[in-house]
Amino acid sequence: MIIRALVFDAYGTLYDVQSVRSLAVELCGNKGELVTQLWRLKQLEYTWLRGLMQDYQDFWSVTRASLEFALDNVGIAPAPSVCEPLMQKYLSLDLYPEARQALDSLKSYKLAILSNGSPQMLQALIKASGVSHFLADVISVDLAKTYKPNAAVYALVEPTLGIAKRETLFVSSNSFDVVGAKHFGFNVAWIERGGGPAVPANSDVTPLEFFNLLRGRAEAFEYQADFRIRALTDLPSLLGGSKVERAKAVISRE
């Protein structure tokens, strides 16, 4: 496997979508945790709806609509005093702690982001986190006017970077994104954040546990990741380490 470029998903891969939780709890009290998880699940659902209907609106609009849905359906009025601070937080989500170190250690490769985010949202995120100097490009689905996992989104990478998909490693923590990228033909590394959710003892699960059961496991699809890793900092050894180190990351194909 010859890799010349690494392309990262943004939300959930480089940036922690759960970092809105503390503000949501501050603004929504004991419903803040539920708002956090419902917001993200509905946000993804709305991208898929928009894509299937071929009725594109950018990710800022989708994110606002899904936030209003979440608030309204837990009994909190989606007033500007609640919505505006939460929306602004999406422009400065926390970078995962290991992300900066990983990007620095991979700078000999061409690095890029491919994200559902609108250009304005992504530029704000990158500016706030100070990682622009690591990136050759930041690619938004806005160019394709649809959302992941549509193949038209992944097809933006080759002409933008000038590197063939067989020489590109796509990195995501989102299982649906892994399926889409592998189906398109990328080499794919899936980050299992937190090592994957524990099997629940019964139906009494928290909103976060329910979210992780949906979004933290591999999809039951024939398109699976080539590599499973636990953190972004596993990537350098996967790409350039010893055969033993690489073998630890290789998925068993069953």
Please characterize this protein's 3D structure.
- The protein has helices at 21-28, 32-53, 59-73, 80-89, 99-105, 119-129, 151-154, 157-161, 175-184, 207-215, 235-240, 243-249, and strands at residues 5-8, 15-16, 94-95, 110-115, 137-140, 168-172, 187-191, 227-229.
- Helix 9 (175-184) links the parallel strand 6 and strand 7.
- The longest helix has 22 residues, at 32-53.
- The strands form 2 sheets. A 6-stranded parallel sheet has the order 5-4-1-6-7-8, with helices on both faces. A two-stranded antiparallel ribbon has the order 2-3.
- Helix 1 (21-28) packs across helix 2 (32-53), helix 1 (21-28) packs antiparallel against helix 4 and helix 2 packs across helix 3.
- It contains 12 helices and 8 strands.
- It starts with a strand and ends in a 5-residue tail after the last helix.
- It is an alpha/beta fold.
- The radius of gyration is 18 Å and the shape is globular.
Write the topology of this structure.
Layout: E1 5-8, E2 15-16, H1 21-28, H2 32-53, H3 59-73, H4 80-89, E3 94-95, H5 99-105, E4 110-115, H6 119-129, E5 137-140, H7 151-154, H8 157-161, E6 168-172, H9 175-184, E7 187-191, H10 207-215, E8 227-229, H11 235-240, H12 243-249
Parallel strand pairs: 1-4, 1-6, 4-5, 6-7, 7-8
Antiparallel strand pairs: 2-3
Helix pairs in contact: 1-2, 1-4, 2-3
What are the salient characteristics of this protein?
alpha/beta, 6-stranded parallel sheet, 254 residues
Number of strands: 8
Helix percent band: 40-55%
How much of the polypeptide forms β-strand, as a percent range? Answer: 5-15%
Determine the number of helices (DSSP H or I, runs of at least 4 residues): 12
Which consecutive residue ranges, at least 5 long each, have pLDDT under 50? Answer: 242-254
General shape: globular
Largest sheet: 6 strands, parallel
Straight-line N-to-C gap? 20 Å
The structural class is alpha/beta
SSE string = EEHHHHEHEHEHHEHEHEHH
For the biggest β-sheet, the strand order reads 5-4-1-6-7-8
Mean pLDDT over the full residue set: 93
Write down the Rg: 18 Å
